[in-house]
Backbone:
């Protein structure tokens, strides 16, 4: 049996409307699973149901084989880290971290030891007497982490904990979270809409859409082998054009799109026949630009180029549509004019429309 199980959950905020319906989720002990998806897809509702803030109208929440479905939040040994930190502004850092231990009536000596150890883990030793307002955003988020882990939770829940931080701090905190979760062997559920966060932190990623899991798997599987058009678009397959199946061979599909003939060798070939319409998708960063025509080349014209730091981003207008191509700044630079967008067969995703 998995450490965390959500079985056949039905959850909603209104009587006749469900956010989650027949929802299932399993998390193994010591695993970090990310719920990834756009706003409104049900990921925070799922987290709040696990925490006990929302009671499902149907189904079960099992933690370590015990039924917690009707157990109030304060009776669940769960650590919570919120987007807004949720620190007590009038309490010192020590007292913020010690709060959960005080509620559990842990004796003073053990409280001091455990708070000191938790603050050391997040590199905040020496900050015990400061107030939250005296800390930076990244430091406050580390206090929130220390408060969540000091109670030695059965399960750690994190709801978009890094979204209020700037880009550089987010990278550092991702590494800190990853280290801490591995060091303590915590079982964790992480909610985010940020693909990079989910890919870099997770043992497994669940992509959600409209209250359902569209695809689940290891980060590499989700990134390279999206199973549905929604997952492909959400994971960055921003370029899309329509075509028709010309031929089907061993692990490849020949596609006719306008005057172009393209070969696709996707990780997954949908159930299509010769003559069927298909959508073809690819990421901006897997495409190349070439002046001369060649294999798997789509003719077009560069409209403009924007500088993105380590990459240059080109907007290319073709008969099949407008495509974005991202090239490393070390690549040759192209000026506006006639061009070909070239995509290797293994970088094309084929979907039924």
Residues:
């Amino acid at each position: 049996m998995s450490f965390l199980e959500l079985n056949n959950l039905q959850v909603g905020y209104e009587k006749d409307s469900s956010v989650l319906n027949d929802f299932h989720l399993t998390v193994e002990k010591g695993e970090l699973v990310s719920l990834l998806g756009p706003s409104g897809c049900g990921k925070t509702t799922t987290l709040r149901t696990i925490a006990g803030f929302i009671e499902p109208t149907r189904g079960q929440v099992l933690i370590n084989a015990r039924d917690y479905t009707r157990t109030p939040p304060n009776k669940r040994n769960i650590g919570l880290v919120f987007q807004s930190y949720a620190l007590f502004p009038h309490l010192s850092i020590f007292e913020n971290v010690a709060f959960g231990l005080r509620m559990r009536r842990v004796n003073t000596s053990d409280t001091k030891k455990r708070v000191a150890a938790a603050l050391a883990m997040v590199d905040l030793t020496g900050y015990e007497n400061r107030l939250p307002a005296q800390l930076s955003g990244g430091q406050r988020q580390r206090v929130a982490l220390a408060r969540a882990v000091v109670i030695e939770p059965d399960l750690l829940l994190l709801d978009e904990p890094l979204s209020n931080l700037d880009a550089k701090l987010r990278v550092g905190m991702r590494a800190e979270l990853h280290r801490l979760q591995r060091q303590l062997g915590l079982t964790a559920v992480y909610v985010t809409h940020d693909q990079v966060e989910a890919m870099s932190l997770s043992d497994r990623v669940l992509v959600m859409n409209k209250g359902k899991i569209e695809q689940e798997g290891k980060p590499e599987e989700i990134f390279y082998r999206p199973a549905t058009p929604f997952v492909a678009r959400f994971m960055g397959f921003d370029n899309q054009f329509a075509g028709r199946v010309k031929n089907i061979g061993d692990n490849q599909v020949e596609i006719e799109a306008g005057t172009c003939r393209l070969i696709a060798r996707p990780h997954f070939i949908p159930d299509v026949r010769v003559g069927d319409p298909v959508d073809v998708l690819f990421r901006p960063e897997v495409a190349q630009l070439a002046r001369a025509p060649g294999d798997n080349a789509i003719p077009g014209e560069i409209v403009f180029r924007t500088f993105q730091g380590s990459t240059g981003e080109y907007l290319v207008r073709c008969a099949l549509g407008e495509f974005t191509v991202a090239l490393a700044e070390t690549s040759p630079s192209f000026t506006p004019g006639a061009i070909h967008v070239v995509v290797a067969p293994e970088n094309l995703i084929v979907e039924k429309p």
In short: The two ends are 38 Å apart (CA to CA). The mean pLDDT is 92. The chain has two domains: 4-231, 236-351.
